[in-house]
Design brief:
It is found in: Cytoplasm. The protein is an alpha/beta fold. 43% of the residues lie in helices and 18% in strands. It contains 14 helices and eleven strands. The strands form three sheets. A seven-stranded mixed sheet has the order 1-2-9-6-5-3-4, with helices on both faces. Strands 7-8 form a two-stranded antiparallel ribbon. The structure holds nicotinamide-adenine-dinucleotide, the ligand O=C(O)C(=O)C[C@@H](O)[C@H](O)[C@H](O)COP(=O)(O)O and zinc ion.
Amino acid sequence: MTANPESSTIRVPVGGSAGHPPYEVLVGSGLLGELPGLIGERVKRVAVIHPEALRPTGDAVREDLAAAGYEAIAIEVPNAEQAKDSAVAAYCWSVLGQSGFTRDDVVVGVGGGATTDLAGFVAATWLRGVRWIAVPTTVLGMVDAAVGGKTGINTAEGKNLVGAFHPPAGVLADLGALEALPRHDYVSGLAEVIKAGFIADPRILELVEEDPEAACTPAGPHTRELLERAIRVKADVVSEDLKEAGRREMLNYGHTLGHAIEKNERYTWRHGAAVSVGMVFAAELARVAGRLDDATADRHRSVLASVGLPLGYRGDAWPRLLETMRVDKKSRGDLLRFVVLDGLARPAILEGPDPAMLVAAYSEVAKA
Ligand SMILES: NC(=O)c1ccc[n+]([C@@H]2O[C@H](COP(=O)([O-])OP(=O)(O)OC[C@H]3O[C@@H](n4cnc5c(N)ncnc54)[C@H](O)[C@@H]3O)[C@@H](O)[C@H]2O)c1
Ligand SMILES: O=C(O)C(=O)C[C@@H](O)[C@H](O)[C@H](O)COP(=O)(O)O
Ligand SMILES: [Zn+2]
């Protein structure tokens, strides 16, 4: 892959499918100027959904849109996972209703993955679907959440249990936003970058291993390449399988246990941290099942630990975690299904594992 000068914009195409036009993920600097071009001319109103923490950014976007002639409506929502709630979605719907938001109008989600998941869900459900644009401001949002059209909210029973496949009309990943991102959140996003490395693009793992500290900052020499590679993995998969009929399940690597941990922690853990533990579990499960070699299984711990991601979780939580995993979207009937690796970049499904195998794999996680 060729190195890009800092000023250049990377454009990653994402293919469309029935009823869903193709779009692009733009990665670069000063990208907000692209927003009016994506929104289009017939549009009258633009609703900008942003979290409390990004009020200045939300205001700036709204002012730019007003200057470009749109009626810009700000919808401020709670930070992080608290936004992925039916009451917050209902609040957004009420603002859209009161502003006379029509099918010609556009939603813009500015924030991390929690905000873009909510904004996309509001766009998917308002008038049965209006266009939306994602402006991700976290690593995780840029490489994963804003791409691919999975939108949704949580319920008391679990993570992302209500949602819709509703791809954005475009994604603007402005790298400048990452300067203000706390390290804890930056590193959480690296879990999804590393996930892309294990399931599809091992060069990602080499780049992180070469200099883990540099991988944890936006100024690192490989930052653009890491983000671009992870985005290309995601774009490639969702272009082929938008509605998760098959191949897309690989993007759920580490998420079966990860989502259960998030729920158990009442969403106070960052998604990436929980997915990190979930990947260690999936690697142990594949090892116990005789499907994954020791070196690749051990590499999970070393690369995740090198950037400060967690590897373990409480042993006493296992019965609750198992119960939550039963409502994972990959389950079929009473069958639990896990994404595992048969080798590096060889994702596969392990269906209905022997309960003893699950316990053995979790005991390795509980030890860490
Ligand atoms: N739809 C998908 O395909 C998909 C993929 C991966 C993850 N997700 C979802 O994404 C969510 C996690 O996203 P996340 O890790 O981006 O966390 P987040 O959206 O919860 O953001 C983390 C925190 O950072 C703040 N923040 C955001 N951008 C900032 C910036 N530039 N500077 C300072 N603070 C900033 C937010 O307000 C929040 O408090 C989870 O809900 C997860 O389920 C969805
Ligand atoms: O895009 C996908 O497909 C993924 O599974 C990506 C995940 O990183 C993401 O966290 C997603 O929201 C999980 O989806 P879910 O269907 O398990 O809720
Ligand atoms: Zn995820």
